[in-house]
Amino acid sequence: MFRDKKLIIRLLLLTLFIFILLSSPATAAITGFVSSGEDGDIYEYNYADLLDSYALKILGLSNGLYEDFAAKKVYALLGSSGRYLDYADVLDRYASTLILEETFDLNKYLDSKEVKMAQMPASVSMVSLNDGRLIRTSKTIPSSITESNPIVENPETKTLIIGPAEVSLEQAQQWSRNRAADQGFVDIAPLYWEYGEKTGIRPEVLYAQSAVETNFGKYTGKVPSIFNNWAGIKIANADGDKVYDHEIFAGPEDGVRAHFNHMSAYVGLEPLGEPHDRYYVAVGQTWSGSILYVEELSGKWAPRLDYHASILNLLDQLKTTEVVTVSQATENEGSNTMSDGVSGNENTAVQHVAVNVELLRLRSGPGTNYSIIDLLPLGTVLKTTGNQEEWLKVTTPGEQNGWIHGDYVSEVDMSVDPFKGKTIVVDPGHGGSDHGAIGVTGLQEKELNLAVAHKLAILLKEAGASVLMTREGDQPVSNGQRVDLANKAKADLFISIHANAYVSNESNGTETHYCSENNHSNASRYLAHQVQNELISALSLRDRGVKANNFYVLKNTEIPAALVELAFISNPAEEEILRNEQTHSTIAQALYRGLEAYLLNYR
C-alpha cells in the first residue's frame, strides 16, 4: 500500500495523462480531450494530434499544440463512441485502483453501468494545427449528447434570445418588486424594453440575466452599483475577477446599452453606437454570432455550466407574474433615509483623513445596517464633520456626505501647497512623422496635443510645480523615451494628452485611461477619475468614462499616470471644437484642476 496517498493524488493528473498515452486499450477508447480555459470556454483536442505534439516536445521540436492543451484544465474525455466522459469521475476511479494496487481498465469502465458522462455545452472550440499554426473552429455538440445534462432541453423547446418580448414591462417591474429588488433595478426596466425594440433581442431575457448578475440590483457580488454594470461585463484585458476587472459605465443607460451590445456579439447582431471594449473581445471568439438560445450561454464566459438554468428559472417567474396596483406609499415604505437623530457629535473644526484600504464603503448612516452609497478608493481624502462612537461623518471630494468606519482611515495634513515641490511630466502624444489621428478637415492630433500641453505647463509652473515636457516641439519621441524621462526624474505625476479617432465619424466623447497592472494602479485610477471629471465638466461632451488599459506609457511609468482622449478628432463637430484655441485653454485648465484635485485629495 502507498503511505503518502495525498502525494499520489496530487500526481494523478500527470499520471493519468501518461497512462492514457501509453495504454493501447485506452487508445481505442479515447479519441480526444476536452479542457476548460480561464476564459470559461470549452476546447477539444484530438488524441492523435496531442500524442504527436507531445512526442515532438520531448524531442525539442514542439509545434505548440501540447503546450496549448497543458495550459488548460482537463474537463472531459471523448470516447470512440462520441460520448464525453466526466474526467473528474475517471480520475477518482483511477485513484482508487492505484491506491488499492489494482489495475484500472478504461474499456471496462466505459461498458459498465457506472460510467458517468460529462455535462457538455451546445458547442466547443476544436483546436488543431494548420500549416504549423494553431486554429480554432466551432463544433456543435449533438443534442443526444448534451441530454446527459438534465437541465438542457431539446432544441424545439429551447428559449430563443432574439424575438419579440413575451413579457410586458409592467410584468417585469411587478416581478422585480415581488422579489424585493433594489429600486434602481425596478427603474431600469423601461430601458431594457426600449433597447429590446431597437435590437430585436428579447428584453426579458437580458433583464432576467441582469437579475442573476446583480442580485436584483443589490450588487452583492464583486461589481458595485456605481459601476452601472448590469451584466457583470469585464474590461477587455481582465486577468481575474477583482472589482476593477469589471467595466465602469458612465450612467445606467450606458450600462444597459452595453448589455445589449454584449449580447449582440453572442447572437450575431450589429452593436448600437460604439460598443465597449469587451465587445470586441467577444466578437473575436469562435462561437461569436452562433448563440441562439439561452441554454447555449453556459460555458461562454459563464461562471458555471448550468448558468442558463438560473436565467430560465427567472424567466418562468416573469411570464407568470400578475400585475397589481402598488401605492406610492407602499413603494416608499422602508426606504433608507438618514434621520437627524444619528448625526452624532458635530465638530467645529474640520479635520481630514485619508482612506487606507483598497475600497471603503461610504454609508448613509453610522452602522453596517445602513445602505452603501459609494465606494471610496485607497488614498481618498475626506473632511470629517462629526462622529458617533467609531463611525465618522464625512464629506467626500465630490461633496457627498456619508459615514465611514474610523478604523480604515488615517489623519492627514492639508496645510501644504499641492504643487509646491512636485515634478509633473506632461506628455503631448505623437510628434514628428507620427501625426497621430487626422481629422476630416486636416487637424493633426500631434499639433493639438502639443498646443494643450504648452498651456498646461504654463499653469503648472505658475502654481509652483516643476514641469518636464516629453517634447517641446514637433520632434519624434519614442514611448520608451517618454517613460525613461519620467522614471529617471523620479517625477510625481505623468499626464499624457491625446485625441481619439474611430472609423465611424459619429463616435464622440471624452475618456481617460490608467493601467491596472502596476504598483501605482490605485493612485493612477484615482488620478484618472479626477481628470475625467474636470474634462467632462469643462467640455460638456459625452462622458465615456475611465478605462483600464495597458498602454506602454501607463504600464511602464513608475509613478501615478493617466492618459486622456480629449474628444474624437474623427468627428467633424468635435474636430471643430478642438481647433479652437480657447478650447485649448479650457482643456488645460481642466487638466490642471484634475491634477490639483488628485494632489489635494489623495494620500
Strand count, sense and barrel status of the largest sheet are: 6 strands, mixed
SSE class? alpha/beta
How far do the termini sit from each other? 60 Å
Strand content: 15-25%
Widest β-sheet, arrangement of strands? 4-3-1-2-5-6
What low-confidence regions span 5 or more consecutive residues with pLDDT below 50? 1-16, 21-27, 147-156, 326-348
Counting DSSP E segments of at least 2 residues, the number of strands comes to 19
Could you tell me the radius of gyration in angstroms?
A: 29 Å
The averaged pLDDT comes out at 83
Alpha plus pi helix count: 21
Question: Portion of residues in helices?
Answer: 25-40%
What spatial form do the alpha-carbon principal axes imply? Answer: globular
Q: Can you describe what's shown?
A:
There is one protein chain. The protein has 603 residues and is an alpha/beta fold. 37% of the residues lie in helices and 20% in strands. It has 21 helices and 19 strands. Helix 10 (183-199) packs antiparallel against helix 11 and helix 18 (521-539) packs antiparallel against helix 21. The longest helix has 21 residues, at 581-601. The radius of gyration is 29 Å and the shape is globular.
